[in-house]
Amino acid sequence: MTADQVTRALTAAVPGLQPELRPRKVGVRSPVEVPELWVEVPREGLVPAVAALKAEGPLHISVISGRDVGEKIELLYHFAVGYGTPGGEVTVTLRVTVSKADPVLPSICGLLPGAETTEREKIEFLGVSFTGIPSTAHVFLPDDFPGHPWRKDDPETAKLVNRLVEWEGKDA
């Protein structure tokens, strides 16, 4: 598996994508350079891009990370394409950004059932919705938790933080 193969598969599946190769060194005693691709993907291109990655070889999703970036929410899908194969693997990160006014993405659980836990985490912490996800039950927070802790504009989280700061101040 090479970064060029993965790049060709992604650009054939979603025309207009511009994967960026960012090789990085891993290891301490005998460091090796590992190819890593970063790709900005539009919401509607997410499922075709993941399907293209899966068609290239065993596909492993590490996690979907996410953050509040002002008026938008950024999700980073971290994959290893060719996972565990003798020819090696290519690390791929798909970056998808959605507006806070419409934080909806298609679920990739139909292609990778293992993505469900990390998608559910983003529902809880960022308030993102995934169409087609098998379950939206909470994984980490109580079911009645009122907000989305990773959202900077979430009023319920602000109340909780203020209450914690006041509580900690009593010990000072």
Topology (elements, then pairings):
Blueprint: H1 3-13, E1 20-21, E2 24-26, E3 32-34, E4 36-40, H2 46-56, E5 59-68, E6 72-81, E7 90-99, E8 104-106, H3 116-126, E9 129-131, H4 155-169
Parallel strand pairs: 4-7, 8-9
Antiparallel strand pairs: 1-4, 2-3, 5-6, 6-7
Helix pairs in contact: 1-2
How would you portray this structure in words?
By secondary structure, the protein is of the alpha/beta class. It has a single domain (3-25, 32-157), classed as 2-Layer Sandwich (Beta Polymerase, domain 2), CATH 3.30.460.80. Helices cover 28% and strands 28% of the residues. The chain is built from four helices and nine strands; from the N terminus they run αββββαββββαβα. The chain has helices spanning 3-13, 46-56, 116-126, 155-169, and strands at 20-21, 24-26, 32-34, 36-40, 59-68, 72-81, 90-99, 104-106, 129-131. The strands form three sheets. Strands 1-4-7-6-5 form a five-stranded mixed sheet. Strands 2-3 form a two-stranded antiparallel sheet. Strand 6 (72-81) and strand 7 form a beta hairpin. The longest helix has 15 residues, at 155-169. The chain is globular, with a radius of gyration of 19 Å.
